[in-house]
Amino acid sequence: MIQNAKLDEWIEKVKALTTPDRVVVCDGTPEEYARLCDQLVDKGTFVRLNPEKRPNSFAAFSDPSDVARVEDRTFICSKSPEDAGPTNNWKDPDEMMAILGEKFRGCMQGRTLYVVPFCMCEPDSKLAMFGVEFTDSEYVVVNMHLMTRMGPNITARFNEGIDFCPAVHSVGAPLEPGQEDVSWPCNDEKYICHFPEIREIWSYGSGYGGNALLGKKCLALRIASVVAKENGWYAEHMLILAITPAKRRKFYIAAAFPSGCGKTNMAMLKPNLVGWTSGVVGDDIAWMWPDEEGRIRALNPEHGFFGIAPMTSYKTNPVMMKGLRENAIFTNVALTEDGDVWWEGQTDEPPAGLMSWKKEEWTLESGEPASHPNARFTVNIRSCPMLDQNAYKPEGVVLDAILFGGRRGDIPVVREAQSWNQGVLFGASLSSETTAASVGQTGKLRHDPFAMLPFCGYHMGDYFQHWIELGKQEGVRLPKIFYVNWFKKDEDGSLLWPGYGDNIRIVDWILKRVQNEARPVERAFGNVPQKSDLNLENMPKVDVDKLFDMPDKDVLVEVEGLRDYFAQFGDRCPEELFEELDKIQAIAQSEES
Ligand code: GTP
Ligand code: SPV
Ligand code: MN
User: To 10 degrees, the CA torsion angle through 34, 35, 36, 39?
Assistant: First the structure.
């Protein structure tokens, strides 16, 4: 048993409110994981995969109504609406607590309340954040086992009396006595609520991903972003990777791309350049801070990957494919006849005899994909065959470059910011086509500043200011900032850039710029490569001029759009961003005339 007074109080409180049949305090051991997986198989939530094909691995199929994050049901409940800002759904904390009080009353009837103590990042790190998820979902518990740090050395900290963020979760499906359970219980009404001032998370109605695994987006991004702002650090939606060019030192890069825009793939970038090597630190979240020497350090607070299955293949992401050979959970993928998993893009041709994620027989004629577009795998970070040796260091790694990027048909594949403030503008200007990672229309261009639109727990204008402040700190050694876009299209709609392992060629130029080894072409919207500085050997032919082109008239339209967008943040939007827009506009106008 854990001896922690606050935890005892919370267990009593959640138990009294939700009236579960029993309470289990989780110990985070492999035995517990195995036991719960067996239980999930017995309940029909899990299908055990063929142990000869995919040892110790499982497939789960969600309710078709519960397949992704629900942004319109995600709330920031700060005391003042001003502190949530115009980009968040705000609700008065007292009003929301009253609603949640009703929703959670008796909601765990017939179920077990699992108490899941966990830690985001190494517990020895000065940024470590402890959490306790209170959940009635075994699926959530086993996913938390893979995604966070749990087990004896975490519970030891609770015994020492550390503070934690309570994160209460229910699928919202109480069972009457004798009522049979369904394989994926959930509720049509969902609430994903954050209380930044009292540091609490309450999530109701969904069992899927970021809605339910509360250490990830809810704690390590939305709540952590508020804690970080108050304490001079940064909680970001970024991958971290190590790149070692042939015969050079190792470099570290962090990159913020919106959901479904390539973080997991870039985190596992396998360089298509001879003699280059790489290593994974993290694929979704980075916590960053300036150290005593002014260097920007970053660490990955997570302990596993919750990645998009479709298009993951030995061609696109061999590192992940190897990491998924055993000990993985797959959600909403298709099943093969011989008890393995398949998804669109895994192989060129689908195997015969598939069962779709909707548990129906599937053929090419079915008219819809066999796996859900947001089908995901969950796997522990230790499964990754290419982890960087510093991936676990509590002191993180020193960043050499920060990338922003998204999914857009019309902007250059890479450009370099000419100053820190222009780099902050790059982050703030990020916009991208929506993907299946959140419920709603896909392929719709929207602003997603710093890829943090759905994940910033406070006012976006204050967030921009926080980034500007980093550049003003004395003695700080700032990484260079770049804006990348792997999705630039030709007039006929085809992609101009092959992406994946060939992205190393853009990283090559980025690292040349970091070391001041290549002279760039200066354009209104930032620096782009000279053709002669690009290594395009042994790759499919590309139209270099089109890759980096952006007509000045388009730049001017972009600038006007950003002025309008930033206007909503009022006087919380840093002046510096408007000054950067003015500079770009002046250059674009003079180039045009
Ligand atoms: P979340 O986990 O939702 O945050 O997404 P993510 O940012 O990790 O994106 P992920 O790496 O899973 O990629 C999303 C989709 O983009 C997948 O279908 C990938 O195959 C595709 N993708 C990733 N990188 C590239 C690339 O370089 N080029 C192209 N064309 N597609 C890519
Ligand atoms: C994302 O949407 O960015 C994800 C998936 O990583 S989820 O954990 O569901 O938020
Ligand atoms: Mn990902």
Answer: 120
